[in-house]
Amino acid sequence: AQSVSQHNHHVILSEAASLELGCNYSYGGTVNLFWYVQYPGQHLQLLLKYFSGDPLVKGIKGFEAEFIKSKFSFNLRKPSVQWSDTAEYFCAVSAGTYKYIFGTGTRLKVLA
Amino acid sequence: GAVVSQHPSWVICKSGTSVKIECRSLDFQATTMFWYRQFPKQSLMLMATSNEGSKATYEQGVEKDKFLINHASLTLSTLTVTSAHPEDSSFYICSARGGSQETQYFGPGTRLLVL
After folding, report:
1. Residue B8 — very low, low, confident or very high, per pLDDT cuts 50/70/90?
2. A101 contacts on B by Cβ (under 8 Å)
3. Residue B16: left if φ>0, alpha if ψ -120 to 50, beta else—which one?
4. What is the least distance, in Å, from the CA of B103 to any CA of chain A?
5. Rounded to an integer, what distance in angstroms lies between the CA atom of residue A33 and that of residue A67?
6. Which residues, listed in sequence order, are joined to residue A10 by a DSSP beta bridge?
7. pLDDT tens, B30-48?
């Protein structure tokens, strides 16, 4: 069965630190990849997505992600986090059915 | 663009009653709408997929008679939790996609508390 793993469940960083959140999926075919963010009390918002082309994808708010097909990974990065980045981050994968499989989420806390 | 609303944002009901949650795509036509359930500090679990004008497709383990889904128009889907029980208390989130788009846009969620 297809699955999505986010190995970091909780991450605590100080402001200005660099961020990398891992996302790995298990599916051998063509996939579409997404990162969503859920700020406290708010709905999921799309950060970025990858369908094809350049494997380095830039999203909103300074986030980027790199698709490494050989590693089945789509890690999220930000060079310098801010307190306002405190949120929960979800990786999602779809594989031709429009349905998403979500990872378990990573709670990021940024200390001011 | 791509705004999805849900109503109500929260609801408290007595055990045994039914609760209807609406999901609307405000500025696009939603070919497909999805209903998720999110438990505290957990990820989103897909409950069902609904296409306008056809029956919903439920994920394994989701009771279709318990969670009735109607997708009567390209901008509205409803989830009715029938004969709600305390274990149905949860955060229900809908999402929508339009046309050939892969991207889903999410509503703000509805928190249901069954007493």
Report:
1. very high
2. 46
3. left
4. 8
5. 8
6. A107
7. 989 999 999 877 789 999 9
User: For residue A5, what is the nearest residue in chain B, using CA coordinates?
Assistant: B43
CB contact under 8 A, A42 and B44: no
Q: Are B3 and B105 a contacting pair, CB within 8 Å?
A: yes
Instruction: Tell me the residue type at B37.
Output: R
Neighbour tally for A62: CB within 10 Å: 14
Mutate to test the interface with A, among B5, B10, B43 (most CBs of A within 10 A): B43
Q: Which residue in this structure is represented by tokens 């849900």?
A: B6
Concatenated DSSP letters for B3-69? Answer: -EEEE-SEEEE-TT--EEEEEEESSS--SEEEEEEE-TTS-EEEEEEEETTS--EEPTT--TTTEEE
pLDDT at residue B1, as a whole number: 67
